[in-house]
Amino acid sequence: MKNSTASNRKTGRMIAKNLIILVVLVFVAILAMWAWFTDKSSATADDLSVSCKFPDGIQIAIVPHSNKDSEQIVPGNDDYKEGTITLTGDTHKFIKDLALTEITSDGVNFVKPMLSQKNGVAEPDTSVDWETATPNERYLSFDLYIRSKGTPTVYLNKGSKFSTVSDVLVGESAGNKSTDTNISRDAIVGAARFSVYEDITNEGVTTSTRRILWIPRPDLYFSSLGGASLTENVSKENFDGETYKHTYWTPEKVKTVMDDKNVTTSEAVTNSDGKTEYVLNKKTEITSLTTPQNFGSEKYYVSKVVCNMWIEGEDAEARLALVKGKFTIDLDLTIK
Question: How far is Cα 120 from Cα 107, in angstroms, rounded to an integer?
Answer without folding.
Answer: 30
